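This follows on from our talk about sequence and fold. I would like you to pick a protein and set down its sequence and fold. Go ahead and set the record down below:
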Amino acid sequence: MKVPRRALHTTIAVLLSLLAAGPLAHSQTRRPMTLIDQAELPRIAGAAPQLSPDGKTLAYSLSRTDWKAGRLIFQIWRQDIGGGAPVQLTFIDGGIQGGLTWSPDGKTLLFLRDGQISLLPADGGEPRVLTKHATNVSAPSWSPDGATVYFLASDPRTAEERERDRIRDDVYVVDDNFKHRQLWKIVVATGAESQVTTGDLTVTEYKLSADGSRIAMMRWPSPSALDAFRGEVWVMDASGENGRAVTNNTVQEYLIDLSPDGSQVLFLADTNERLDPYYPTTLFTVPVTGGTPQAVLSDFRYAFDLAAWAPDGKTIFASAIMGVHGELFRIDVAARRAQQLTDGEHYIPPTWSMVANAGRLVFQIDEPTRFGDVWTLPLTGEQAAPTQVTRHFDTLARDFMLPRQEKAEWKGADGVPVEGVLFYPTDYTAGQRYPLIVQLHGGPMESDKFGIGGGMTLFNVPALTGHGYFVLRPNYRGSVGYGAAFARDVVNGYFNHMATDVLLGVDALVARGLVDQDRLVLSGWSAGGTLVNKLITMTDRFKVASSGAGIANWISLYAQTDNTSFRRTWFGGTPWRKDAPFDLFWNNSPLKDVANTKTPTLFFSGDSDVRVGLAQSVEMYRALKSLHVPTQLLVGPGEPHQWGGLRHLIRKANVELEWFEKYANHRAYVWEKVPNP
C-alpha cells in the first residue's frame, strides 16, 4: 500500500503524540486497567527486536488491536539508539507476521507477510515481495554476504492430492497426512529459488555458520511433536551436501547454534548431563563430527531459556529462569563458569539476540511497571547496567493503577521452601482482608515471574487486581528455577506435592492477614488447569474455580495428545503395555475423585487443541453436571492449546469475573463490551 509522504508524516506525528501521552490515556486520572485496556495496550512482540549491524538503529514490531479482525496487528518501527522519536516504517493491511531481520549491510529489513518474505528499505518505503513460494515460508535468515536468504517451507500438495481436493475427497489417514518441511534458499537479486534439503525428514530449525559455508539443523522423522524425541542435530554444507547426524539419542534437542569457527553445535535439552529425560533445561555442546554431547555447566541450578555463541567462540551468552525472575549470563566455556549480568524483579524473555559487529546484546525486560521495553548491553561486560532504548511503557504507572508485585515465600509440607509472585489489589489498604485468586501456571516445568508476561489477556492480572483481588501465582513443585529435585517432584506420582504447595501458600497469606479465607478463587491453564481439576476434588475451600485446557484422565489423554514423552517419564511407561502402570495413571487422574467436588467450576477448551483436547474438559464437565455442581464448559472455535482470539479471550474473562464475583464476593458483575470495529 503506497502512502503519500505528507500523509505518512502526519500519521506518524499523530501516533507519536498518542504514545507520548501514554497508552490509552483517556484522562489524567489514574485508574485500574480494564479488560479492554489490557487488550488494546500496544505490545512489542510478534518478532524479536533486531539491532542493526552497526548497532545504531533498533527495528521492532509494535502491535495495535484490530477488533474487526479480532487480533493484534503488528507493524515495523524504528528507533535510533542515540535517542529521538520512534518512527513507524510499515502501514500494511493485516500487518507483518514476524521474521524481522536486518540484511548484513544494514540497508534492508526482511519480514514475513501473508506467508511470504518481503524486503523493506531500512529508512522506509514500499516493501518488495521476495518469495512467491508454493507454500507458506517461515524462519528466514540472511547469508553472511547478503546475497541469499534461507527459509523453511512445507512440501506442496501432490497432483493426486490436488485431484482429491477437486472432487472433494477429504478423507485422510491419521498420522499420515503431514507434509515434511524442508530448507530452501532464494537469490535476492534474481528471485531464483532452490531446495537445500530433501528426503523423508522434517527440518524444524536451522542455523548458518558465521562464514555461511555450513548449516546446523534439527531434523525430525515428521513434523509431529510425537516425533520430537526421535529428532537429531545435523550438520551439512550450505549447498545441502555432506549432511550427517551429529547426535544419536532419545532426547529432544532445540535452539541450536554453530560456534564461530564451525567446530561445535550448541543446543538446549530437557535432560541432565547423562541425557536422562525430564530435567531442567541444560546447555550442551557437541562436535560437528559427532560424539557425546557435553553439558557446558555441570552444577547450574537454574533452567536455560536461550543461549548463543559469542563472537570470540570462547564465551556463550544465555538467559535462564531463576524462579520468580529471569536473567542474562555470560559463560566461560573453558572454565565452566557463569557470570550473572542482570539482576532484578523482572523477566528477560527468550527473544534476545547479539550483534557481533556492534558488540551488543539487545533484549526485552518485562517489569511490574514496563511490559517489555527494549534494552541493550555490551558484550564485554564493562557496563554495569543495561541501556533502555524504547520507552513505550514509561507512562503506564502514570496512567494506570498497576498492582504492586512482591515475592511471597512459604514452606511446603515437607519443609521445602516454595515461592511465588503476589499481586496486590490496586485499592489495597493495610489491615484489611481481600479476596484471593490463585493462578496456576502451565508446564509444569515453567515458573511465574515478575512482570506481566505474554499471557496478559489470558490471565488478566491487572484487571483482576483492579476489581479488588489479590492474585497469587505460586511456583509449586514441578516448577523450574529451584533445582532438579524440585522440578522432578512430578516423576512417579505427578501430584506428589503440588496441591499442598498451593494450599500452604494460601494459608501463609491468610496468616499474614492479607486474605479473606472465605473468598478464595482458583484458576489455571494447561498444567495449571490440570492442577485446578485435582484441587477441586481435594478441598471445597475455594468458592469458585476456572480450569482451562486441563486434563481429567491421564489414561485417555495418552491417545489424544500430540506429545507423550513427558508422560512416559511421569508415570513410568505407557498405558498400552501388559505391565502398564495403571495405578499411577489412574490415581493421579482428577476424574478418579471427581465425586468429591463441590466447587462451582468453569471449564475452557479450544476445539483445535491437539495437546489437551476438548474431550478432557468434557469428561470433567459431564462429571460435575451429573453431580449437580454448578458448571459450564466454554469452547473456543478454532482455538489451539493457548487461546489467541481477542473476542474469545474477552468472553472468557467476562465469564470468569462474573462467576468469581457471584460465588466469592456475592455481588453482580457488569460485562465489559468489545468495541465496535
Residues 646-665 form the longest helix (20 residues).
